[in-house]
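Retro notes (design track)

What went well: tokenization of the new backbones is finally stable.
What didn't: we kept losing track of which sequence belonged to which structure.
Fix going forward: every design gets posted as structure first, then sequence, in one message. First example under the new rule, 502 residues:
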């Protein structure tokens, strides 16, 4: 068999994609974790045996199976077993607790729930019982097993809803996002083709596999036939040994991951922190231009950043061969199948990678415009060269005395300050101005604490308009972040600092 990545991507289902790759390169590794290696052929064979074990317990095509599992080989096996059966999967981030997990189980009407048992000090099995979950089974290091001869035929099409992903639900209940195999394959294909990877690369999955990026990444591995290292728990410098051991060439996750790698590189300037690394790539959070320039300059690797969300796993992606200017200041270009429309500054999307909507029909109706474009809530514009530039969120625009102020513009400038590790800019209620601009700053341990006059002086010298200057500065030891792609939780900052200054 001699199939190209393009012909592989035409597979109608994720199981078809795996079956074709397993036939093409059965002995090549696909997943690496510590001293364990799983090949493409083994992934197919073992996933089918797990599917048979699940079938014996009552899982059928269309059965809703929720799973809350860490980033492990077993998790990928279970997920592909469910794909083989044509079940509906509802992945839940392993750091979520009673409120989010209970909501996901109730709303999805899950008939089975796979948990890791006690993981990182939390008893997931006990939590599941407390929540009244159905069909609880532990799937950390042992999975159901059976004879594949009992299985029905694999699903014949990839256009039915077989995935329910959950938005973060930071200020309200999460939304159940409906995906098909086809939409996930479209998202993964965009990522794979944009990054220009080859069979000689070694990738890494350092984020929760239950995140929408999980299947994105697996699609990329299936298309190009190269492996990835899985990290059950990612922390630096502890994880560096695994990157070096497996000679990883492509790493990343999101902006927070880039910053963590940079911090390690600065401990040993002049010596590459991961000798084989050639590319950092990711998305999920804004990337200040200075982060791009610092990575390229100090780590001597390329950095490509993209734009995606739970509803659309991959919208645009930077191309490693693009110009430094475009890589630093844009989110890359969309693939041929993604339509981008800008309406009153808001980015709207239509294409194969876009979700089918939400579990709640009312939320679906509100999210799509009459032409079928998804309203993202993000602000931006498309350049003459077709690159997408993000300028903020509809809810992240600060309105001060009737003037709109982009939080992202100020954050990008602050990111270039040598005494700033990271910064988040928020609007706080103000009786006279409507909102005031507050900059919340995270600094390196040894840096002198920045004051409001320091920050204002720096931003003025950087060319920021006077009406956009912060009226308040708060320095925190660590910005609050979520547990998936380490995105800053601005709603927590607003809660912390909405009180009046004494």
């Amino acid at each position: 068999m001699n199939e190209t990545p393009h012909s592989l991507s035409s597979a109608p289902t994720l199981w078809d994609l795996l079956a074709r790759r397993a036939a093409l390169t059965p002995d090549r590794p696909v997943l690496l974790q510590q001293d364990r290696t799983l090949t493409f052929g083994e992934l197919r064979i073992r996933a089918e045996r797990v599917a048979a074990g699940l079938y014996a317990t009552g899982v059928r095509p269309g059965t809703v199976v929720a799973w809350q599992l860490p980033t492990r080989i077993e998790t990928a096996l279970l997920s592909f077993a469910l794909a083989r059966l044509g079940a509906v999967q509802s992945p839940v981030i392993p750091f979520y607790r009673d409120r989010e997990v209970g909501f996901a189980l109730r709303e999805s009407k899950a008939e089975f729930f796979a948990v890791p048992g006690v993981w990182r000090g939390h008893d997931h099995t006990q939590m599941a019982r407390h929540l009244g979950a159905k069909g609880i089974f532990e799937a950390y290091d042992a999975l159901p097993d059976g004879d594949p001869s009992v299985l029905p035929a694999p699903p014949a099409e990839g256009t039915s809803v077989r995935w329910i992903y959950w938005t973060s639900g930071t200020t309200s209940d999460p939304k159940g996002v409906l995906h098909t195999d086809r939409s996930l394959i479209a998202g993964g294909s965009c990522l794979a083709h944009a990054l220009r990877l080859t069979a000689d690369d070694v990738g890494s999955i350092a984020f929760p596999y239950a995140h929408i990026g999980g299947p994105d990444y697996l699609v990329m591995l299936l298309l190009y036939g190269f492996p990835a290292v899985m990290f059950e728990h990612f922390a630096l410098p502890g994880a560096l040994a695994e990157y070096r051991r497996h000679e990883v060439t492509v790493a990343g996750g999101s902006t927070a991951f880039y910053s963590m790698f940079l911090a390690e590189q600065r401990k040993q300037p002049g010596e590459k922190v991961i000798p084989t690394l050639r590319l950092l790539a990711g998305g999920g959070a804004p990337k200040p231009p200075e982060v791009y320039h610092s990575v390229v300059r100090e780590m001597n690797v390329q950095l490509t950043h993209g734009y995606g969300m739970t509803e659309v796993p991959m919208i645009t992606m930077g191309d490693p061969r693009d110009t430094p200017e475009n890589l630093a200041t844009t989110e890359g270009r969309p693939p041929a199948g993604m339509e981008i429309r800008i309406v009153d500054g808001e980015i709207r999307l239509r294409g194969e990678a876009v979700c089918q909507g939400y579990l709640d029909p009312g939320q679906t109706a509100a999210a799509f415009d009459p032409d079928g474009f998804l309203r993202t809530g993000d602000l931006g514009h498309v350049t003459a060269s077709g690159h997408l530039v993000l300028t903020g969120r509809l809810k992240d625009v600060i309105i001060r005395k009737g003037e709109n102020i982009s939080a992202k513009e100020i954050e990008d400038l602050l990111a270039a300050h040598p005494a700033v590790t990271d910064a988040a800019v928020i609007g706080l209620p103000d009786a006279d101005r409507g909102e005031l601009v507050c900059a919340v700053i995270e600094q390196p341990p040894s840096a002198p604490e920045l004051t409001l006059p320091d920050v204002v002086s720096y931003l003025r010298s950087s060319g920021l308009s006077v009406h956009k200057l912060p009226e308040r500065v708060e320095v925190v030891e660590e910005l609050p972040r979520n547990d998936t792609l380490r995105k800053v939780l601005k709603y927590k900052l607003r809660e912390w600092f909405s009180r009046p200054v004494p």
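Added context from the reviewer: The radius of gyration is 23 Å.
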